[in-house]
Amino acid sequence: MLKFLSRRFRGGIHPESYKNLTNAQGIDQHFWPRNVFLSLQLRNGAMLMPLVKPGDTVSRGQLVAKGRNDMVAPIHAPVNGVVTGITQHFSSHPAKLKCDTIIIRANGDRRWGESHKPQNYLSLDAEEIIARVRDAGIVGLGGAGFPTVAKIQFARKGGAHTLVINGGECEPYLTCDDVAMQQYAAEVIAGVKLLLKASGTHKALIGVEDNKPAALEQLRLAAAESDEIEVHAAPSIYPMGSERHLIKYLTGAVVPAGGHAGMLGILVHNIATARAVYQAVRFQRPLVSRVITVSGKGIAAPRNVEVPIGTPVSELLEYCGGVSDSTARLLFGGPMMGQVISSPYIPIDKTVGGILALTEEEVRPRPQSECIRCGQCVRACPMGLMPFQMAAYARLSDFSKTEALGVGHCLSCGACSYVCPSALPLVQYFQFAKGSINANRLKAQRSATAKQLNEERVQRLAKEAEAKAAAKAAKAAARKRPARATAQESES
Amino acid sequence: MIDFEPKSGPFAHTSNSSNRIMYTVVLTLLPAALMGVYQFGLASLQTLLVCSVVAIIAEYICLKLLGRATSACLDGSALLTGLLLAMSLPATVPMWLAAFGSVFAIVVGKQIYGGLGQNLFNPAMLARVMLLICFPVEMTTWAVPTPIDFSGNQVTVPQGWLQFDGVTAATSLSGLQHEPVSLAAQFFGSIGGSLGETSALLILLGGLVLLYRRIIHWAIPVSFIAGLCVPAAIAALIAPESFASPLSQLLSGGAMLGAFYIATDLVTSPTSVRGQLIYGAMCGLLIWLIRSFGNYPEGVAFAVLMVNAASPLIDHYLRPSIFGSKSAVEKS
Amino acid sequence: MIATVIFFVLLGAVLGAALGYASQVFKVESNPLVDSIEAIMPGGQCGQCGVAGCRQAAEAMVRGELNPNACPLGGQSLTQQIADMLGVSVSMSDDDIEWVAHIQEAQCSGCGRCYKACPFDAIVGAAKQMHTVISDVCTGCKLCTESCPQGCLTMVQVAPDTRTWFWPKPQASAA
């Protein structure tokens, strides 16, 4: 116990959790959408190619779009129905950006298009597990949305030894992982075993915050016979669910600043991802739905719902009894790192773990005032940064100073904004600084390319001019030469 | 109404606000201030009111001239500055002097730096030092306690309590060699001295409330007291006849007020824990040096101003180390 | 006395000669700062800064006649780099509008004039064929706009997409 005390990280906050709104009920599996909208551009900008055309009939689980490589997870039809169009529609982006979207009108049929007999999945070898995870289009369900297959393959190549399963779920309100662990602990543990085998790691550490005693108990029961899987309770401090901080707590190792977990031989996956892996490998079911927490005081009947990917927010809210008039904000994800839902017609993508309707009382909008240098943000920052100084430089658009202070290490966890008594939009200052630094870097790259192109062009033009001059000279010479040649001939 | 405008998170906040912090500090200061009134009579009440009200008016005028929202003059920061200044003055200073100090604190100590959060020096201490240098006679004429007597069957209000110009004499530190003052008297506050600095007990209680509410961090008071008491203890062991004991150092003058309210001023102190430890220790040590070897009997204001000047430097060099990095960030 | 005077006169003469010689031997043809600034400029010679070319612009910046933020192609990153080199501070404009050339392909006659005008080879197309802009390479220098006889080549603002959008700077407090 003392060993663990020393592994706590510095900083962090204790926001009110509101988890009791939804953590005692089972997962509601009765929801079915009327239409689904599948964005063909992922949050990181990668594009997918549609494999269907308007008018096609699709069945649940059918592959409908794929990317160029393993770094882009394919998309499957989450429902049975008809493709009604492939047009521009809102993506889940906060700035209401649109992208090409496959729209499917669903019928009430919930059967899978193809059903595979459950197999003795534990006898599959690593290659086969990886292939099934790839074909199922699984991405990290914790929020980052990185393709799971790519992570497994990096870990294999890098010789990772430890698998960390993140059941932190430190965001207030969210309980989708909690209830999944309570209800499907055996599936989670089976998924962990498959991940261990696929990634070549020897040991799995499951970290769950100690405010989920029921989930911890179920996991411990399910993992009782597996020596290679350990279940640990972690203290409930936001952001315990951050990869770096959970790793520090579970293993004592510290991910180097600017580095990633793979450098320590550690592979991190989310609880929900482990369960999706189990579904994909055992039943060959692609990732077409996920458990989502619908909560907040603006929701009439908060609960966890199994939702087909692509469902528009409005349909899900309607299903949960609609939102009250006092609702001030709709959010994807938790209140700390979640994103504003800028239109109710935005579809839910694979990375969304929660939809919150927060009332003014919960959001507590406050007037912004001057920074009083109270240092609360410095003590709250789990990364050891000086938020108030970085924000001051970002405000002046002095990005080199902001970067020198370490804005690149910021997790955007929001702990600083949470504690700030002056209600400064610290996180937005850092997002702005990070975005600007990135844009400047791209611009610098582009100008370097442009410069090179220009130099090449100048050289080419010079060469062309030279060649032209040479050709001219040759022509001129040729015009003279025949005369001279005949003269010479006549002389000889 | 649902707000769909994109805004960056988080969408959860503490109920804490800058105003609330300021007013909490003011509230915790009040017992010690009222103790001053009990001790020194109506003259001290007058000083308290003049300093506070003038500070708020000066803030209002500055904000108006700068074209900022004038409602900010009631954010508690100007009131706090005025109150702290009043508490560090002798109870019987003339009204004009208190008012002048207050205006100086707000205008020169705070607003010319750019207002709230921008000032380098503690405005109240800046004003106090200015007054001490410009008006040494008025500033070292200390009131003699003429407390209301609650001990008998009837409450007796002494004549001096009601006088606006009070009864004056020298304070403990300058009179150290002449007559010993009991530590108990210093602890409870039945001694002469600045208006609000006499009762160490009430200041300690107020400070503990601030610590409990996490408005101030333990690092500054602890290192401040250590920085003052450790050298004092060593010196008192070596030469007890020429140096005051550590406890007497701590309880006399403005040391307690300095440790909990003045050195911990949020704006002018460093933010990282390591920085605060160094800052507090430097401050305590300087106070001891000034008291023991300097020309002035009291050094809290001077010491605080000196470490205030070092505070940006401390913040620059003693950043917390970034999670996962071997050392602190590359110094820019 | 006289010896001292002679000594110092001689010393002065020797040192002066040495300095004069050194200035001849180590003569710098041009200010190295100009070279290093020119090296980081886009090199399109587009003249949008109001000076004939990039070299001249670099010279003007070193002389202090041209603001480091004068080059619209380089954007903030270039401005910052130049300001750092010159040791001056500049105010950054927050709206760094990016332009890119766009050809309305239906109207393009394939005359090839825009192709010749582009200093960065960002326009492709053969003679008598439709031309198009490689927008990833286009710097927005606007040199091609005048060249199109059809008037179908225009500059458009780059709309942010998922990759390039980022949070704007928060509004300063009302107080």
TrEMBL record, chain A:
<comment type="subunit">
    <text>The complex is composed of six subunits: RnfA, RnfB, RnfC, RnfD, RnfE and RnfG.</text>
</comment>
<feature type="domain" description="4Fe-4S ferredoxin-type">
    <location>
        <begin position="361"/>
        <end position="391"/>
    </location>
</feature>
<keyword id="KW-0472">Membrane</keyword>
<dbReference type="InterPro" id="IPR019554">
    <property type="entry name" value="Soluble_ligand-bd"/>
</dbReference>
<dbReference type="InterPro" id="IPR026902">
    <property type="entry name" value="RnfC_N"/>
</dbReference>
<keyword id="KW-1003">Cell membrane</keyword>
<feature type="domain" description="4Fe-4S ferredoxin-type">
    <location>
        <begin position="401"/>
        <end position="429"/>
    </location>
</feature>
<feature type="binding site">
    <location>
        <position position="377"/>
    </location>
    <ligand>
        <name>[4Fe-4S] cluster 1</name>
    </ligand>
</feature>
<keyword id="KW-0813">Transport</keyword>
<keyword id="KW-0411">Iron-sulfur</keyword>
<feature type="binding site">
    <location>
        <position position="416"/>
    </location>
    <ligand>
        <name>[4Fe-4S] cluster 2</name>
    </ligand>
</feature>
<dbReference type="Pfam" id="PF01512">
    <property type="entry name" value="Complex1_51K"/>
</dbReference>
<keyword id="KW-0677">Repeat</keyword>
<dbReference type="Pfam" id="PF10531">
    <property type="entry name" value="SLBB"/>
</dbReference>
<dbReference type="Pfam" id="PF12838">
    <property type="entry name" value="Fer4_7"/>
</dbReference>
<feature type="region of interest" description="Disordered">
    <location>
        <begin position="472"/>
        <end position="492"/>
    </location>
</feature>
<keyword id="KW-1278">Translocase</keyword>
<keyword id="KW-0408">Iron</keyword>
<keyword id="KW-0479">Metal-binding</keyword>
<feature type="binding site">
    <location>
        <position position="420"/>
    </location>
    <ligand>
        <name>[4Fe-4S] cluster 1</name>
    </ligand>
</feature>
<dbReference type="InterPro" id="IPR017900">
    <property type="entry name" value="4Fe4S_Fe_S_CS"/>
</dbReference>
<feature type="binding site">
    <location>
        <position position="413"/>
    </location>
    <ligand>
        <name>[4Fe-4S] cluster 2</name>
    </ligand>
</feature>
UniProtKB/TrEMBL annotation, chain B:
<keyword id="KW-0472">Membrane</keyword>
<keyword id="KW-0997">Cell inner membrane</keyword>
<comment type="function">
    <text>Part of a membrane-bound complex that couples electron transfer with translocation of ions across the membrane.</text>
</comment>
<feature type="modified residue" description="FMN phosphoryl threonine">
    <location>
        <position position="171"/>
    </location>
</feature>
<protein>
    <recommendedName>
        <fullName>Ion-translocating oxidoreductase complex subunit D</fullName>
        <ecNumber>7.-.-.-</ecNumber>
    </recommendedName>
</protein>
<keyword id="KW-0249">Electron transport</keyword>
<keyword id="KW-0285">Flavoprotein</keyword>
<dbReference type="InterPro" id="IPR011303">
    <property type="entry name" value="RnfD_bac"/>
</dbReference>
<keyword id="KW-1133">Transmembrane helix</keyword>
<feature type="transmembrane region" description="Helical">
    <location>
        <begin position="276"/>
        <end position="294"/>
    </location>
</feature>
<feature type="transmembrane region" description="Helical">
    <location>
        <begin position="125"/>
        <end position="144"/>
    </location>
</feature>
<keyword id="KW-1278">Translocase</keyword>
<keyword id="KW-0812">Transmembrane</keyword>
<feature type="transmembrane region" description="Helical">
    <location>
        <begin position="187"/>
        <end position="211"/>
    </location>
</feature>
<dbReference type="InterPro" id="IPR004338">
    <property type="entry name" value="NqrB/RnfD"/>
</dbReference>
<dbReference type="Pfam" id="PF03116">
    <property type="entry name" value="NQR2_RnfD_RnfE"/>
</dbReference>
<feature type="transmembrane region" description="Helical">
    <location>
        <begin position="95"/>
        <end position="113"/>
    </location>
</feature>
<keyword id="KW-0597">Phosphoprotein</keyword>
<feature type="transmembrane region" description="Helical">
    <location>
        <begin position="47"/>
        <end position="66"/>
    </location>
</feature>
<keyword id="KW-1003">Cell membrane</keyword>
<comment type="subunit">
    <text>The complex is composed of six subunits: RnfA, RnfB, RnfC, RnfD, RnfE and RnfG.</text>
</comment>
<feature type="transmembrane region" description="Helical">
    <location>
        <begin position="218"/>
        <end position="240"/>
    </location>
</feature>
